[in-house]
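Notes from the 1:1 (GR / supervisor)

We went over the backlog. Supervisor wanted to see one worked example end to end before approving the batch request, so GR pasted a single chain during the call. The sequence is below; no edits were made to it. Supervisor asked that the structure be written out right there so they could see what the output format looks like.
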Amino acid sequence: MKRSKILRIYLSLCIGILSLQMNSQDLLTLNEAVQIALNNNYEIRLASNNLDIDSLSVSLGFAGILPRVFASASTNNSTQFSSQVRADGTEIELDGAKNNNKSYGVGLDWTIFDGLNMFTRYEQLKELKNLGEAELKSTILNRVSDVMITYYDLVQQQQQLTALDSTIVISQQRVELADNRFSIGKASKLEVLNAQVDLNTDRTLFLRQKELYANTKIRLNEILARDTKIDFKVDDDVLINNNLVLTDLETLATNQNPDLQTQLINKRIAELELKQIKGNRYPTITANTGYNFSDSESTLGFARLNNSRGWNYGFSASVDIFNGSNQNRNEKIAKMQLENSTIAIEQQTLTIKAQLNTAFQTYLTNVGLVDLETDNEEIAKENLDITLSKYNIGTIPTIEFRTAQLNYINAKLRLSVAKYQAKLSEITLKQLAGNLSL
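Structure output shown during the call:
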């Protein structure tokens, strides 16, 4: 009797503490969790910064289209022993003859033709930016998918905690009933002990589930890149979209899947690389101009002081006549890389279709299991109610009541898992389609 009272008091305290904790926790909705991840997640922030870098790189200057304007200045001074013999035979020697030369000015260099490579490089920079956008989208899809999967995992664990809590209440009632029957001589001590063992078993399952629930919260906080000690609760509902159509998903994946888009962009970059290499067959023509000042002084010589200033301009052209056949090799390599990019697109397309078909079959199965487990949970609940009534009046044995109790709790747990698996399949399909909506 004393042990039974202690167990009841301890159980009441545990349930009371759990209830207070759930009520005191802030509700974190899925929309809020996704928004926090978009703002805080480290991988998303890194991918966003990389996209900013790619965007800054898209410029005419980076591509080499714009001219280079520069300023220059130089000075050269010397002190030497100088000896000169002039045309008339006069010989002059001077120890410590000084020569000072200064020049300064502004200049411009401009590559006006390089086989159109500069324009090809500009297009490459644009495609690299598009590649950064695809990588950012892929990162966002992956991290949002992680958030949604972990969030709905918490939802099903929260549902399982509720189910385990309810079975503890039933087991506690069974202990009390067995204890009362024992006190009036209608039950053996063995029945009381069995009831207490089953209660402790249920409490153990509850504590294990509570531990898993707490650890999953820490995992979600990590994905959200916030303090892992922040406590919260999640919604209890899992709304499943059971109207997904495979052909629609395949169409979306063809147009939006970031991995496929990445391969398409890589092919475009390979095409531009081949075009740029072919451009090396043409000459490079450069124009240059400038305005320079020059001053020179000499203590010995025909001209003691010389000043000049003015414009200079000119053109230069160069073309490779022979470079060890590297031009032909580079073109062949670029063509093979272009062929590889085409193969990669075909492979990625087939892989995505295979993943979609596999995930869709799993999705159909899981949606069907949700309906089946919903009906099964209702049947198990009705069976438990009837069994509990009969047990209270002593018309069925303890083992039959325990079987009905376990059938009910297992049915609730399976329903919770079925809903989570169906939602997981839905998230996977939408992620493959590149359209992961909340």
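Supervisor's comment: Confidence is low (pLDDT under 50) at residues 1-17.
Batch request approved.
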